[in-house]
Amino acid sequence: MHRSNLLFPFLALTLLLASCQPATPPPPLTISAGTEFTLAPGQSAILADAGLTLTLIAVSNDARCPSKIECAASGPVTLTVSTQKGSGEAVEFTLQTFTSNNGQRPTMEFEGIQDRVMFEGYQVKITSVLPYPAKFMSEIKASDYRVGFLISLE
């Protein structure tokens, strides 16, 4: 076998392995209380004056009805966040919300759906989840999600 015949399989394997490596999360954001911000999975936001850190761990389930499909009902989006105050222990929470087709959380609250959490005197609330599925519930890659949050002093 010629050397050139081995080059293509080697390059294909190298590209395949490189694509399996986890993506580096975006750098942390520095935010202010009362200002909306958006996180990618694995990304953190730091409320510097309070020493509070919020990390979007992952969007674990998206049961929203795709916009190009007719469904009897649309479900919520479920995600996991981690909150930490200073050097204290990180605490994980599972949150859910419904969204409109433009990804915005409705203003009304739904029984059994926890779209916000209190932590160390601050309320952490989901404001949006994008992208919205178009044809299939499973069409969105986990790394493509962007979740909007609002942290306010309560």
Question: What keyword list fits this structure?
Answer:
globular; mainly beta; 11% helix; 154 residues; single chain; 9 strands; five-stranded mixed β-sheet; four-stranded antiparallel β-sheet
Q: Which term fits the overall shape?
A: globular
User: Helix amount, in percent?
Assistant: 10-25%
Q: Describe the oligomeric state of these chains in a short phrase.
A: single chain
N→C terminal distance: 71 Å
**Which class do the helix and strand fractions yield?**
mainly beta
Report the biggest beta sheet as strand number plus sense, adding barrel if it closes: 5 strands, mixed
Rg over CA atoms, rounded to whole Å, is: 19 Å
Number of helices: 1
Number of beta strands: 9
Unreliable residue stretches? 6-19
Order of helices and strands: HEEEEEEEEE
Strand order of the largest sheet: 1-3-4-5-6
Q: Calculate the mean pLDDT score and round it.
A: 86
Q: Beta fraction of the residues? A: 35-45%
Overview of this protein structure:
11% of the residues lie in helices and 38% in strands. It is built from one helix and nine strands. The strands form two sheets. Strands 1-3-4-5-6 form a five-stranded mixed β-sheet, with no helix packed on it. The longest helix has 17 residues, at 3-19. The protein is globular. Mean pLDDT is 86; it is low at 6-19.
Summarize the structure in short.
This protein is mainly β.
SSE diagram, text form:
Elements: H1 3-19, E1 29-31, E2 37-39, E3 44-47, E4 52-62, E5 77-85, E6 91-97, E7 116-119, E8 122-130, E9 146-153
Parallel strand pairs: 1-3
Antiparallel strand pairs: 2-9, 3-4, 4-5, 5-6, 7-8, 8-9
